[in-house]
Amino acid sequence: GTTPPDQDLMQDLEALRVENDRLNQAELQLDAQLKAVQDDLRHLSEDSSTSRMSFVTYEDLRRLPSLQGQTTIAIKAPSGTRLEVPDPDEGMENGQRRYQIYLNNEAGEPIDVFVIAPGTDTPVSSSDWVNQ
What is the pTM of this model? Predict the structure, then answer.
C-alpha cells in the first residue's frame, strides 16, 4: 500500500501557506498606503497654493541620520522627467565601477541637480558645473 504523507512536512507546508497569506495581506496594505501618500503628494504639488511652499532645504537633508556621511544627490525636475541609472559595472574592467545618472524631460525644461558631499557646508549645483 501507500504510506500517508509525512505529517511534519504537511504542517511545515501549512505554516508556510499561512505566512505567505499574511505577507500578501501586509503587501496589499503597504501598497494601499503608498498609493495614498503618492496621491496626497500629487495633490499638494498640483495645488498652486501649496506647491510653491513645497521644498526641502540643504539643512533638512544634512540632518537626516540615514544620510550622515553619505554623498547625496538632490534633483529638482519638472513633472515627466525620466531618470536612468545604467549598470555601474557595464563596460568596466573587473573591480572598477562608473556611476552615471541620465535625466531627460521632453519639454526641455531646466533640471537642477545638487550634490551634497560629507563635510561640505553648501551643495554643489549643476549650474555651477555648466558655468565652469
Answer: 0.51
- Long-range CB pairs of 24-30 (<8 Å, 24+ gap) are none
Q: Phi and psi at residue 97, in whole multiples of 5°?
A: -135, 150
Collect all residues with Cβ–Cβ distance below 8 Å to 73 and sequence separation of at least 6: 101, 113, 114, 115, 116
Instruction: Write the CA distances from 24 to 8, 13, 17, 28, 37, integer angstroms.
Output: 24, 16, 10, 6, 20
Residue 65 DSSP SS3: helix
Q: 83-114 pLDDT, tens per residue?
A: 999 999 888 888 888 888 899 988 888 888 88
Using CA atoms, how far apart are residues 114 and 73, in angstroms rounded to an integer?
A: 6
Q: Of 122, 89, 117, 86, whose CA–CA distance to 103 is shortest? A: 86
> Which residues, 6+ apart, have CB-to-CB distance to 74 below 8 Å?
56, 61, 113, 114, 116, 123
**pLDDT tens-digit series, residues 54-94:** 778 878 888 888 888 888 888 888 888 999 999 998 888 88
